[in-house]
Design goal:
extended, 12 strands
């Protein structure tokens, strides 16, 4: 069985469990994901399946090599392609759909996505610096980061926390609990928050 599936973040909501406790959850549309390519140990050195997610629309919008890649598996072009390791490659066939029923409630999953981009940010927003005092007598640099170097070794030390681009990076959250699996609508409800914006693609893997 494949260890993961491709999904899309729908948004966050809240539900009540059997004990009446409120549980914040993220709704993820997971699959169905057709198998586009099989990687074998003999040909590629490892066993994996390449799966697609979300139809790309008109096939003519894709170039010929890209369209031909899907045509060999007799599936429509997808917006996203990813590989997942498998234990037994013989269990899969080209065109086979991997669905959300591979998960069940109470399973733990690891979710990877691209975090929200925040643009250029200062040290207070980016790293949580407290900033300078704003009391009487302080005239400038309230949100300044302070000194970035010293007399010796006469350079800025590597790893110094400074202003820069914030977000828009690959981010992984581990051991999130699945609260509900909606097989009919291909939905996963996962406890807590996951990286990314509404509509962002996610990789949902079984926790190792």
């Amino acid at each position: 069985m494949a260890i993961g599936i491709i999904g899309k973040k729908i948004g966050m909501t809240q539900i009540f469990d059997v004990k009446g406790h409120l549980v914040p959850v993220t709704v993820i549309q997971a699959g169905p994901c057709p198998v586009v390519q099989k990687k074998t140990v003999n040909n590629d050195g490892y066993a994996a399946v390449q799966i697609g997610f979300e139809e790309a629309g008109k096939s003519k919008s894709a170039n010929k090599p890209y369209s031909g890649h899907f045509k060999s598996a007799d599936v429509k072009p997808s917006r996203m392609l990813r590989e997942f390791d498998v234990d037994n490659i013989e269990e899969y066939e080209l065109g086979q759909e991997i669905k959300v029923d591979m998960f069940k409630p109470a399973d733990k999953v690891t979710i990877t996505g691209i975090s929200k981009g925040r643009g250029f940010a200062g040290v207070i927003k980016r790293h949580g610096f407290s900033g300078k005092s704003q009391s009487h007598g302080t005239h400038e640099g309230y949100r300044h980061g302070g000194s970035i170097g010293c007399r010796v070794p006469k350079r800025t030390i590597k790893g110094r926390k400074m202003p820069g681009r914030m977000g828009n990076q690959k981010f992984t959250v581990k051991n999130l609990k699945i609260v509900l699996v909606d097989k009919k609508n291909h939905l996963l409800l996962v406890k807590g928050a996951v990286p990314g914006w509404k509509g962002g693609f996610l990789l949902v893997r079984k926790a190792q």
